[in-house]
Amino acid sequence: MPTFCAPDGTRLAYRETGRGAPLVCVPGGPADSAYLGDLGGLSAHRKLIVLDLRGTGRSELPEDASSYRCDRLVDDVEALRAHLGLPEIDLLGHSAGANIATQYAARHPARVGRLALIAPGSRAVGIAVTGEERRALARSREGEPWFPAAYAALEAITRGTGGDWDALAPFFYGRWDEETARHHTAGQPANDEAVARFGAEGAFTPEATRAALTALAAPVLLLAGEFDLNSPPAPTAEFAGLFPHATCVVQPGAAHYPWLDDADRFVAATAAFLG
Known about the structure:
Blueprint: E1 3-5, E2 11-18, E3 22-26, E4 47-51, H1 70-84, E5 89-94, H2 97-107, E6 112-118, H3 131-139, H4 147-159, H5 178-186, H6 192-198, H7 206-213, E7 220-225, H8 233-240, E8 246-251, H9 258-261, H10 263-274
Helix pairs in contact: 1-2, 2-7, 3-4
C-alpha cells in the first residue's frame, strides 16, 4: 500500500484501484476507508485514489492529536495531491469526508477539477439537519420490519435521552440484510479520539467557507440518497445552492451508502458527472 508524508511528518497511506484518470476519494467517519470498496464499480471508469485519514486504516497515528481536526485534514489532501504530482485533482468526499473536500475546494479552488460530494456532511458550511427533519424522513419507512426499534432509538437520540446508536443502522441503508449489516459493522470508526476531535472548536468556519465557494469555478455534484437521515435531500439541495456550478441528484431508494443500494444507478450518475 503506497504511503506519503503529511506536512507534520505523519506517514499516511492510500490505495489505488481501477483504471482511468485519478479520482481522489476522502472517506467519512473518520473511519477505515475500506468501507468505500470500489464505490460500486466506479473503479471501472476512474482510478480511485482512496486516502486513509490519519489515525485510521494503515495511516499512522499523529503525534499531535489536535491534527485530527477537520480543517487540519485539508493539508493532508493537499500533500497527497503534491505527492501524486497532479496540478489539479478530481475530488470525491463521502459523508464527513465531504466536509474535508469542501474546505479543500474553498482553500485551493485552482487545484480542483471536479468535486463530487456523496451523501455529504454539511457542517463545513453551517447547514444543520433538524431532529424533526430526520424523524419525518424516518417515518417514510414505517413499513419495514425493523422500523419500531430503529425509530424508538431515533426518538431517544433526537430528544437527548440516550438511545441505541446501533439500532439506527437500518435507516442508513436502502435495504437491511446480511450484507448491509456486515458493512455497518466493518465500517464503524475504530479511533474514538479522531472522531471526537474531528469537529473540535475551530474545525469549521462556515461564513468564510461559504464566501470562498461562491468563486469556485469547478463543476460540483451533490448526490443524496432519498432516505438518508444523515444527509437528507432538502439540506443537500440547500448545500448545492452555495456553488456557482452545482448539480444535485437524489438517488431513489438509497440512503447513506448509495453505491451499495443501487450500484448501477450510482455509478451511472457519478461517472457521467466525472466525464
